[in-house]
Amino acid sequence: MSTFTQEPHKLLLIPGPIELSDEVLYANATPPMPHTGADFIPIFGDAIRMTREVVQTQTGQPFLIAGSGTLGWDQVAANLIEPGEDALLLNCGYFGDSFADCLRAYGANVDEIRADFGKSVTQPELEAALKAKKYKLVCFTHVDTSTAVLSDAKMIGETCKRLAPESLVILDGVCSVASEEIKMDEWNIDVVLSASQKGLGAPPGLCVVIASQKAIKVNEVRKAPIAGFYSSWKRWLPIMQAYEAGKPAYFATPPVNLIRAYQVSLTQITKSPTISLQDRFELHRKAALRVRHAATELGLKLVPVDPHYTANGMTAIYLPEGLGVADVVPRMAQRGIIVTGGIHKVNKDKYFRIGHMGVSVVHPERGDIAKAIAGMQEALQEALASKKATLAAKESYKPSPVRNPAVPRAYPRSIAVVSARL
């Protein structure tokens, strides 16, 4: 058993990367091992199997590939869409915009249902779109990190199964996997894409994608060549299958240390003797309620319009009138708490975001949420007091009266004489 303890640092409460456990960090810091060696193969195989458990699928195929969550968009677009085919994007924020851009880059015709800022796409809107046109893909961001809006994944999957059973349902779960419940098989979700650095509780750098057997079949029978090399499932599928079967295989070098850290985190998530997966979701929900309650107690407004469609792994909060991100976020950093501002093109400087995922909520004895709430209260009070003092100083300042140019100025006699001579 390692006695490693991470060094003191500012509390990282952005919507990813997040705080990590000592065990996960230690696993990432151990000496590298050969990626086809006997020691690494079972680690990789375990990581693949436990990934299924997190999204509650029996038959989904995980792909664990070095890259950011953005690589998940490329995997979907390269493997599942062919040039000229139609995709529907349910857009509720910044990352919906980017997902649509990625699909178009691979030749897809993308229609969008765009929700207003702080809202999610409704069932009637989805039903109308599916009745009007057939789509190869129906894509949505489960939690859009720019707004903290939570889409109704169950409703989307079930609506597509009823009205468009041939469509593939794609869930972007970068900011939701392991902090929001996802029942991939039961809800008719064909692809879940995510990344290691958020609810999955590992360092950044690993793209995590789980594809249904329906999606794998669509990839196998496509007519056009796969529009990607590194992102091709036909190259990666044999690798994943080999490692899960306990055999070495090679296409591209996997991030050995990162997968080792990810496997440790998955063990903590799925094999804890005291905290079940359902307990974990409930702890995230309670932490989110604490943060939202504290914000409303301060008179602040949340970005998501409907509490029912508000994420449990992060919170987006409007700032008081007259304050910007630069007034609050640095003040929280001075108190040892790292949060971040908005990134959506609408109201970008008018709100800030707090992440509450992983060990910060699963282990309340750390006190991370309490510290975040206290820091938010103090930073806002200080910022408002500073703003009030600045306004008071401006009001008390009385400049000299402005001279009316129509009235001759009375110069001293010496100046007047010189002027007359000139």
Automatic annotation (TrEMBL):
One Gene Ontology cellular component annotation held by this UniProt entry: peroxisome
Which InterPro entries does the UniProt record give?
Aminotrans_V_dom, PyrdxlP-dep_Trfase, PyrdxlP-dep_Trfase_major, PyrdxlP-dep_Trfase_small, SP_NH2Trfase/AEP_transaminase
Q: Which Gene3D superfamilies does this chain map to?
A: Aspartate Aminotransferase, domain 1, Type I PLP-dependent aspartate aminotransferase-like (Major domain)
The segment(s) forming the Aminotransferase class V domain are 26-344
Which residues take part in binding substrate?
A: R353
Q: Which residues carry this modification: N6-(pyridoxal phosphate)lysine?
A: K198
- Tell me the domain of life: Eukaryota
Protein name per UniProt? alanine--glyoxylate transaminase
